[in-house]
Amino acid sequence: MKKKFNIPFFVVIFWFVCGILGLILPLQPDQISLDKILLGPGWEQWCGYDHLGRPICERLIMGAKTSFSVAIIVVLISFVVGTFFGVIGAWFGGIYDKFLVVMIDIFIAFPGILLAIVLAGLLGPGLTNTVIALSVVSWVGFSRLARIQTLSIKNRDHIIAAHALGTLDYVITYRHILPLIIAPLIIEATFSVASVIIAEAGLSFLGLGIQPPSASWGSMIRDGTQYMLVAPHMVLGPGFAILSLVLCVNLLGDCLREKMDIRGSK
């Protein structure tokens, strides 16, 4: 279990540190060198250069910053909004819960990435609009999970006793409900991070996400598809980055789920 947990953890930390370095180091990912156009990997530049002579390695680092920035912001917004509406709907029930269920069903009826593409197309490309589009899509999973978890514990003895003693609803929610449902929500957040990274790359690949000259793994793959035969490193670099990060985030989520599963522990 320890090795299974350590490997994806260190890979995620590696890319996270790359994102931090993108904020600190004086990188020049947009510097054009005409004499280095489509040069392959070498000792000078491990990942080679793209069709404009820009260093792919530095653009991968800036792409990690973009991916983590979008993923963290979107997941935080979705976590707070989804958990709030899910707990409120399940706790008060009645028309509040029915309205929440209808809204969740409406959003689930549409494929998430398709809805994000539509919203991004309506709002326009850019970092802010990408965050808004993905947040509108991603809150549903947290809301559905928070509602189910709240319904399963709202009739427990200690919560009924707290309500009978006149404890305010928000106090019961903060002290008695959230601590019991936070573990599955954290696990959901890890899988949501992976989904948001893929969605952001997909939007950027379609030209609806992060716009040039800002680096994004999705837009780097889009540029590289035109030069697959002569410069495959333009696609392999960002493709491996997305594969390794998303895979390890999902593995990390699986490890957290096993670790937090009380029923499976001895």
Indicate the topology.
Layout: H1 2-24, H2 56-92, H3 94-109, H4 112-123, H5 127-153, H6 157-164, H7 169-205, H8 217-224, H9 233-260
Number of helices: 9
Question: Which class do the helix and strand fractions yield?
Answer: mainly alpha
Provide the β-strand percentage band.
Answer: under 5%
CATH superfamily membership? MetI-like
Please summarize the sheet with the most strands.
none
Bin the helical content.
over 70%
Under the CATH scheme, which architecture would be assigned?
Orthogonal Bundle
Output the CATH topology: MetI-like fold
Following the backbone from N to C, one meets helices and strands in this order, namely HHHHHHHHH
Shape: elongated
- Could you tell me the number of beta strands? 0
| Overall tally of structural domains | 1
The residue ranges in which pLDDT falls below 50 over 5 or more consecutive positions are none
Radius of gyration: 22 Å
What is the level 1 CATH name?
Answer: Mainly Alpha
Q: Average pLDDT, to the nearest integer?
A: 88
* Straight-line distance between termini: 14 Å
Structure description:
The chain contains nine helices and no strands. It is an all-alpha fold and 266 residues long. It has a single domain, classed as MetI-like fold, CATH 1.10.3720. Helix 5 runs antiparallel to helix 7 (169-205).
